[in-house]
Amino acid sequence: MRSSLAGAAALILVLAGCGGSDEPTASETTSTPSATAATTTAPPEAAEFVVRPGSIGGVSVGITKEQAVATGMFDADVKGVAGCTFELQWKKQYDGVDVLTDEDGTITSLGVREGGPKTSAGVGVGSTLAEIQAAYPEVSEPAELGFGQAGVIHTLGDDHIGFLFGDTTVDSVRPVSKVTFMEVTSGNAPELMRSGC
């Protein structure tokens, strides 16, 4: 009996020396990459982006061109059609989102044209006016935005998300009308327009 008690005590001491913390030790968190191991993290996809007033996917309106490029999600000085040059453009894998800048490349607006990115309340392109109003009871009344279309704006402090309802007008928008474009801004309210260079 004494030998089994002594053995049990020894086992408890050994196990106690092995535990004690859920935090990884330095040897568990530091590893040397092998020649075959990938050491880079895959960039997030546009569908993973969360749209918030003033930002999309952690990119905020108002950051500089240099800050945007440093995120790894943008290309700078992109040549477009008809002699256009874009100060910033989302990298190709971020299909369905766009960016507008001022002359020095500071981001002034971010947009979502296709499904994927959604707000933290789960609304996005394809959501209905009724869903927007349920998610954001303080959203503005439908107003003329875009190119004479109906839209609503959710505001938090100085930051905004605008929701455009395609071919509807203020007179024709209905609770079942669907969002066709979203725009986030800071300071100025979204105009919900995209055109030209």
Automatic annotation (TrEMBL):
Q: Where is the composition biased (Low complexity)?
A: 23-44
Recorded hits in PROSITE patterns, A to Z, give: PROKAR_LIPOPROTEIN (PS51257)
Annotated region described as Disordered, given as residue ranges: 22-44
Q: What superkingdom heads the lineage?
A: Bacteria
Instruction: Identify this protein by name.
Output: ABC transporter substrate-binding protein
Native organism taxonomy: Bacteria, Bacillati, Actinomycetota, Actinomycetes, Propionibacteriales
